[in-house]
């Protein structure tokens, strides 16, 4: 279980820059949870805190009871909105680079899972935007994190491509059972996908407005 | 040889400087030690090199090294410092840190900038060696310019200048070709 416990954060300490306050929620293993809120409400800050790249002003993140606050590692992996691929590694090497002993898939299986078979020898800049996102996903699966955070990861793509990637992501999730936190400003992205939606408030500092349980196949 | 050692040491020192703890990187004395030696032009080092090493092949290599080192070192350091934050974070999530980070992430990510430094370094090294030959050479194009100047053979001087330009351009282009060969991922081949 991944637990965010009473997370508060301010960027400009003591100058009224508090962005998050009292954020608490947990994600069960194998669950897919959505996190929504208006642009600028602190979703990405929460993603960075979750992945250990940013230590919150107060509160903690635990993975299976182990405190991971401010400590990045393979336990929580974040796919950024901007490209975080290594441009000097071809598709196959990119995935192999991230692969570790705990992942039950081979490079070939991961390539096939994200529908990139035949593109193993391509560099990221030779792939289309959608293919690059698939590659980022395969690499994240190779890391086999306890929690995979997608922070507006498909946000820069057109609507049709985004919908197709979400369909593929859903299939991959069903197949691999990876625990996912899907962050988006557009709740429509979560349609027919997530089991719970955590809605953040629009007023600063941001708090949790409500947590809605959604049967798969239904949204909002 | 002067350029090769400047490239190797320039990259190594650039990467190591980037790997220093933040407190040391921001330290003014450390900054001074890394930055100040860049400012005297390579030509200003020539008398010292001749004084310390004498005239000969090794002093020529040393002068080329002095000319080429600084641009490679600066570009390697700046390349390593400008690795995109998303890539840095991803590497940290993969638990790649310390020397492994410098070798597996910083170095390949910095290669495009390093090659820019190598191109500038080659030019600087080439200019330095010509200057050294003009001041104290016994042979070479720099020496030939001086000799032709003394003999008032201005036509031959122009030929020397042309050859210096031609060789410099060939060196520059060979670095570009090498970059294309070694960094195919920098080519914009969008499908």
Structure explained in plain terms:
The complex is a heterodimer of chains A (220) and B (191). Chain A is an alpha/beta fold. Chain A has one domain (2-85, 144-213): 3-Layer(aba) Sandwich (Rossmann fold). Chain A has five helices and ten strands; from the N terminus they run E-E-E-H-E-E-E-H-H-H-E-H-E-E-E. Chain A has helices spanning 43-50, 91-98, 107-113, 129-143, 159-176, and strands at residues 2-10, 18-27, 32-36, 58-63, 66-67, 76-79, 147-151, 180-184, 196-200, 208-213. The two termini of chain A are 24 Å apart. The chains are: A alpha/beta (220), B mainly alpha (191).
How do you describe this structure in short?
The complex is a heterodimer of chains A (220) and B (191). With 220 residues, chain A is of the alpha/beta class. Chain A is built from five helices and ten strands, in the order βββαβββαααβαβββ.
Protein chain pair with the most extensive contact, residues per chain: A-B, 27 and 22 residues
How much strand of chain A? 25-35%
CATH topology of chain A: Rossmann fold
**What proportion strand of chain B?**
under 5%
Order of helices and strands of chain B: HHHHHHHHH
Summarize the topology.
The complex is a heterodimer of chains A (220) and B (191).
Chain A: E1 2-10, E2 18-27, E3 32-36, H1 43-50, E4 58-63, E5 66-67, E6 76-79, H2 91-98, H3 107-113, H4 129-143, E7 147-151, H5 159-176, E8 180-184, E9 196-200, E10 208-213
Parallel strand pairs in A: 3-8, 3-9, 6-7, 7-8
Antiparallel strand pairs in A: 1-2, 1-4, 4-5, 9-10
Helix pairs in contact in A: 2-3, 2-4, 3-4, 4-5
Chain B: H1 2-18, H2 22-25, H3 28-35, H4 42-53, H5 57-81, H6 85-93, H7 98-136, H8 141-150, H9 154-182
Helix pairs in contact in B: 1-5, 1-7, 4-5, 4-7, 5-7, 7-8, 7-9, 8-9
């Amino acid at each position: 279980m991944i637990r965010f416990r009473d997370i508060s954060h301010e960027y400009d300490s003591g100058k009224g820059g508090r962005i998050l306050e009292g954020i608490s929620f947990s994600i069960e293993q194998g669950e897919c949870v959505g996190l929504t809120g208006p642009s600028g409400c602190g979703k990405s800050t929460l993603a960075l805190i979750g992945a250990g790249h940013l230590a919150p002003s107060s509160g903690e993140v635990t993975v299976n009871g182990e405190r991971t606050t401010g400590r990045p590692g393979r336990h929580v992996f974040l796919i950024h909105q901007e490209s975080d691929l290594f441009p000097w590694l071809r598709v196959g090497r990119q995935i192999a680079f991230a692969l570790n002993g705990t992942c039950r898939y081979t490079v070939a299986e991961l390539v096939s899972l994200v529908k990139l078979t035949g593109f193993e020898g391509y560099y990221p800049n030779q792939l289309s935007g959608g293919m690059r996102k698939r590659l980022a996903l395969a690499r994240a699966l190779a890391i086999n994190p306890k929690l995979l955070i997608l922070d507006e990861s498909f946000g820069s793509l057109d609507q049709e491509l985004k919908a197709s990637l979400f369909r593929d992501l859903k299939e991959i999730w069903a197949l691999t059972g990876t625990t996912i936190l899907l962050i988006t400003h557009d709740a429509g992205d979560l349609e027919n996908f997530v089991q719970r939606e955590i809605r953040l408030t629009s007023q600063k500092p941001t708090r949790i407005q409500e947590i809605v349980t959604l049967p798969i196949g239904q949204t909002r | 040889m002067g350029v090769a050692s400047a490239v190797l040491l320039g990259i190594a020192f650039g990467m190591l400087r980037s790997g220093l703890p933040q407190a040391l990187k921001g330290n003014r004395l450390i900054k001074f030690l890394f930055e100040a030696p860049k400012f005297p032009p390579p030509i200003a080092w020539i008398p010292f090199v001749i004084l310390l090493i004498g005239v000969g092949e090794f002093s020529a290599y040393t002068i080329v090294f002095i000319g080429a080192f600084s641009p490679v070192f600066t570009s390697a350091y700046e390349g390593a410092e400008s690795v995109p934050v998303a890539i840095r974070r991803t590497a940290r999530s993969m638990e790649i840190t310390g020397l492994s980070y410098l070798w597996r992430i910083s170095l390949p990510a910095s290669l495009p900038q390093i090659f820019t430094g190598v191109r500038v370094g080659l030019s600087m090294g080439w200019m330095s060696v010509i200057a050294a030959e003009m001041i104290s050479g016994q042979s070479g194009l720099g020496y030939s310019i001086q000799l032709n100047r003394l003999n008032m053979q201005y036509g031959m001087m122009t030929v020397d200048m042309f050859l210096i330009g031609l060789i410099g351009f060939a060196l520059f282009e060979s670095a570009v070709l090498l970059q294309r060969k070694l960094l195919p991922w920098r080519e914009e081949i969008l499908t």
